[in-house]
Amino acid sequence: MKIHIAFDLQDEPTGGGNQFLKALRAYLRSVGAYAERMEEANVILANGHQWGPYLFRLFLAKRARADLVIVHRVDGPMAVVRGDEVNRIVDKAIVSFNSRFADGTVFQSRWSRDLCITHGMDANKHQTIVLNAPDPSLFYPPVRQMVGDSKIRIVSTSWSGNWRKGFDVFQYLDKHLDFSRFTVTFIGNSPIKFENIRHIEPIPSAALADELRNHDIFLQASHLEACSNSLIEAMNCGLVPVARNNSSHPEIVNEAGVLYEGIEDVIAAIDAAAKGRAGYLAKITQSITMECAGRAYLNFAKEVSRASLTRPSLYEFLVTWASWKLACSPAMFLRLRTLVGKPRHR
Q1: Is 203 inside any structural domain?
Q2: 83 within a domain of the structure (yes/no)
Q3: Is pTM beyond 0.85 here?
Q4: Residue 147: what pLDDT?
Q5: Which of 169, 269, 152 is nearest to 214 (CA)?
Q6: Tally of structural domains, the chain
Q7: Max CA pair span of the chain
């Protein structure tokens, strides 16, 4: 079985989906299960709402090959995670593609699956849950001894500068954390300027992994995440996680770190992680690995291939294409909402 990933993978620093799919492609190549061209694949993996540029080719392939499998990896719901109305139309496009083109759905966490189904995703379609995993050649623990008399080093990362990525917490810590005991580094794009927190602009994955290994605690401050790649990458680099007690974070952290509610208890959570660091490190699971994730994708694709597969009609293609084009045009979406919402005059 050969899988092709229908996604424009980028080498430069970008979002978590790109990072995971690059690592998955590397794994599939290593086991001889990756097709470099879509035409050579038995299974095509589509991601979230980024299938739009490939939709016509997917339609033609589905019509030409009755045995072609499309697996759809989803996250979100986007409107919930990103907290804005425009992404409701993105969610509708995701549901449209999933119902008309996908033969199976990969959710990234139980939290995301349950919420996606609540927001319209087909609960009866073949589905599985596979947590994200990092590239093991980059994200691995350091070989070093704990230093008891030095400052505890905290790090956090976010490619997105969206305020919901936890900048309320970063802003609070920048003013209230005891920087005689701790250092804090933020890597990524930030909408605020820090006074005490060290800020590093986005860097490539290899440099990011090296920077992570120079720290002790990873702070996950995001309000909602379907499955945080940055959190999993940090745990694989041997950092104790301190994460908000929401969305998928408890599923990932389990007993290997400390959960907190917000600015009212984040410093206490950091203190607890610092004091119990050795014990938490011993509990970091090794099940969140690319080998486990890659095998799960392959096994699920084989399972789906034995089921009845979709064969979208021209009408279904046009409906899905229209939903994607609307999702790509937030201004058009808002304009339509305004027109629909206006009262009719007689």
Answers
A1: yes
A2: yes
A3: yes
A4: 55
A5: 152
A6: 2
A7: 78
Six-digit token pair at 327? 């999702």
Number of helices (H), then strands (E), in the chain: 14, 11
| Intra-chain end-to-end CA distance of the chain, in Å | 62
Q: CB neighbours (10 Å) of residue 331?
A: 8
Which residue blocks in the chain are alpha helix, DSSP H? Answer: 16-30, 55-64, 78-82, 87-100, 110-118, 167-176, 205-212, 229-236, 249-253, 266-275, 277-283, 290-305, 314-327, 330-341
Range of the domain at 177: 152-283
* Cβ atoms 108, 252 nearer than 8 A: no
CATH number of 76's domain:
3.40.50.2000
Residue 257 dihedral angles phi and psi, to the nearest 5°: -165, -160
* Separation between Cα atoms, residue 280 and residue 301, nearest integer Å: 35
Instruction: Report the mean per-residue pLDDT for the chain.
Output: 89
b/e map of 53-68 (b: 16 or more CB within 10 Å)?
A: ebbeebbebbeeeeeb
